[in-house]
Amino acid sequence: MTIAGVIDVHGARPNGSDGRPPYLTVAGLEKRFGSFVALSGIDLAIPEGEFVCFLGPSGCGKTTLLRAIAGLDRQSSGTIVQAGRDISDLPPSRRDFGIVFQSYALFPNLSVAQNIGYGLVNRRLGRAAIAARVEELLGMIGLVGSGDKYPAQLSGGQQQRVALARALATRPGLLLLDEPLSALDARVRLRLRGEIRELQRRLGVTTIMVTHDQEEAISVADRIVVMNHGRIEQVAAPEAIYRTPASLFVAGFVGTTNFMTGVRSAADRVRVGGFDLQVTPGDAMGTGQVCTACVRPEDFVIRNVCPDTPNAIQATIEAVEFLGAVVRARLGSPQLPDLPLVADFSLNAVTDLDLARGRAVTVALPPERVRIFAGLPE
């Protein structure tokens, strides 16, 4: 049994409709360590029942923000409101959350059942009520019959399930996950993230997960908060983060992107080297402005491309890499010298068109798939 096989012990909660009032609101939050500014100008509203991922590189501030919400690292300024209650200055013990750490943080000298029921003991619940809740949670995480074992007798994935059950034991309104899967091997991590997502949907508990793994965030989150240098770059649904990144940083951090620097030569053109790249008008960028065009590898078109197709490029396949569902090719083109491009082709296209290293091809970049940003990549 997986941890997804569970009844909803919280009762029904809405999970992701527009216009819901915020359950958690962070406003004007800053965190300084001496002269170092770890967080600056953080504003965020999370509806009840939403699964949100804080995503970003190491040192971007995502864990600091999570710890501020928990009261473990008090913010320097700003407010945090949960379920209409200002918790900005409350200690962790007076906030309504459960937390799961990367390192599990289980008590090695306590049994699985004692670990799960630890928070309930502190709340002075009766022995029978604690035992019933622990059994319920053991069933929830698929570890029925393991209550008498100790953490050292469990696998890493099982230990993390126990840590999750302990966090949920008190029925918190907010679940905080601090890179809970990063210490697990790839196969266990893949399975457990799906189980966590299914459990969250069944319980409807508002959840924030910190991760630096973009695939993990995209697969589980209702919305992703992309952070960089202590600031929020973008907050949006996973598909919007990927398809319509709000900044060069987001375009480069989430997924793979081809960056082509050039100059805006017209409302619908960017001059990249000696090549006029056709783009879709609509931004406020002026003619002559230095900019960067971004194209995802999967957006290259290779079938039915002719010389008058917009953004047709003559290229040679310089290298190929088999990635399972697709083949990734590195392309070189005299139209874009010194600018290798990365394109993804389906296995069917590779077979049908006999695509291989050294093969000359004509590819096209649909103008509507080209994203334009002012400035240059970091």
Written account of the structure:
The structure is a single chain. The protein is of the alpha+beta class and 378 residues long. Helices cover 24% and strands 31% of the residues. It is built from ten helices and 19 strands. The protein has helices at residues 62-70, 112-116, 118-122, 127-140, 156-168, 186-203, 214-220, 238-243, 248-253, 347-352, and strands at 22-33, 36-47, 51-55, 77-82, 85-86, 98-100, 174-178, 206-211, 223-228, 231-236, 258-266, 269-272, 275-278, 290-295, 312-322, 326-332, 341-346, 360-364, 371-374. The strands form four sheets. A six-stranded mixed sheet has the order 6-7-8-3-9-10, with helices on both faces. Strands 13-12-11-14-19 form a five-stranded antiparallel sheet. Strands 2-1-4-5 form a four-stranded antiparallel sheet, covered by helices on one side. A hairpin with a 3-residue loop joins β15 and β16 (326-332). α4 (127-140) packs across α5. The protein is elongated. The two termini are 46 Å apart. Mean pLDDT is 91; it is low at 1-17.
